[in-house]
Amino acid sequence: MTARSDKPSTRSSASKTASGKASPAKPSTARSAGGKPKAKKPAGARAGSGKSNGAAIALGFVINDMATEQDNYTTIRLARTAIERGHQVVFIGLSDFIYDADGTIRAHAFLPRDKAYASDAELLADLQATDAQRQAVSVDALDVLMLRSDPAEEIEDRPWAPNSALLFAQLAVLKHVIVLNDPAHLTDASNKTYFQHFPEEVRPATCISTDADIIKAFIAERDGYGVIKPLQGSGGQGVFVVTPDSGGNLNQMIEAVTRDGYAIVQEYLPRAADGDLRLFMLNGRALRVDGQYACIRRYNDGDDARSNISAGGKFEMAKPDADALRLAEIVGPKLSRDGMYLAGLDIVGDKMMEINVDTPGGITMMEDLTGIDFSGLIISDLERKVRLRDLYNRTLSNTELAMM
User: Fold this and answer.
1) Are strands 88-99 and 58-63 parallel, antiparallel or unpaired?
2) What average pLDDT does range 183-196 have in this prediction?
3) Among the listed ranges 11-15, 155-159, 203-207, 253-257, which one has the minimum average pLDDT value?
4) CA 112 to chain centroid
5) How far is CA 313 from the centre of its chain?
6) Which residues pair with 63 in a beta bridge?
7) Which of 20, 240, 263, 367 has the fewest CB atoms within 10 Å, counting from its CB?
8) What is the DSSP pairing of strand 178-180 with strand 144-147?
9) In the 8-state DSSP scheme, what is residue 46?
10) DSSP category for residue 231
């Protein structure tokens, strides 16, 4: 955890608003050397970014750990956009929740100290500084809690952390905090077997097993071609592309994946050689702003078959073709039913390879390439959900709010 000088309070630091609702403690305004508040205008603002037209909301982001966040993460871009629009933002690590004896939920959170940041890097530097502002906040008082942690990062050292955080998130739902993606379903959706619940038409042929003979038979039936990857994981880690030339290396590939559990084996799609598409879904529909879809093509022009950006792949903006939009239409109803508010579809040709519902990334790259304010649309949508929750006196369910 990042070192800090501010010791977390042992009491809730929530204050009361005029309506009597508790709210998280507000971050202090950063000051210049002369003691005057800084007046910063964010540089490189996206088209359409700016202040919210509605009331400020309190928005929390659940992350793995502040020390491991990076300035190109979608989470940081969403947070900076929310700050620019006048909202309160806090960051909560997976191990930072507290359930008090009186039934309240708190967390040792990181709070931004400024009202605007010139870049994502500047915001992250503030949050990761040795004197970063950190204090106990009331999770119950948040309007929205966005779950943006990657379970794959915790498999070795903290396998307990992701599920524990989901349990706290489910408790927050009982306090009428809008939690996205819906934690009641995210427990199941985080596993790659979730993919198998979608219509067969959108999925490549798949086998899941720990048995090396079964895996090899599946590949042999497809003329020696296939893709092997761990059932738990993301970011292209532990992914092997099998070809007829793999020969004796196949046993090593299978052993490398199954030593940590089940392997998922899929048919090889030849069009994967040209990369894949990452298409964002919001509220069960393809995310689009001013006619531009939130979609990038990820590819690798070297020998590495992985196109994941985190694995060294490259990217460019792309227009989803008819096949990709058809897949988005097919998977939309289940995403909606399960409260998967923000998701990333990984598409090759007319098939989906994966659905990322934990922490889909790519918004930052898309905005930097186009100048289009995709993150602003997402924050505006969160504002709308909070208004609807309050207009209906908090009688709508979390899953309903997640997708309306």
Assistant:
1) parallel
2) 84
3) 11-15
4) 20
5) 19
6) 93
7) 20
8) parallel
9) P
10) S
Whether the per-residue pLDDT at 183 is higher than 80: the answer is yes
Exposure class string for 90-129: b at 16+ Cβ within 10 A, else e? bbbbbbbbbeeeeebbbbbbbbbbbebbeebebbbebbbe
pTM, to two decimals: 0.83
Q: Which of 302-311, 316-325, 352-361 shows the highest mean pLDDT?
A: 316-325
Tokens read off for 77: 């871009």
- Reading the block at residue 113, the tokens are 């100290």
Tokens describing residue 184:
């009641």
Please give the pLDDT value at position 155: 83
CA-CA-CA-CA dihedral for 20, 26, 31, 37, to nearest 10 = -40
Transcribe 165-211 into DSSP letters: HHHHHHHHHHTT-EEES-HHHHHHHTSGGGGGGS-GGGS--EEEES-
How far is C-alpha 135 from the geometric centre of its chain's CA atoms? 24
Residues in the chain: 404
Work out the number of other CB atoms within 10 angstroms of the CB of residue 362.
21
DSSP 237-277: TT-EEE-TT-TTHHHHHHHHHHTTS-EEEE---GGGGG-EE
Q: Are 265 and 219 in contact (CB under 8 A)?
A: yes
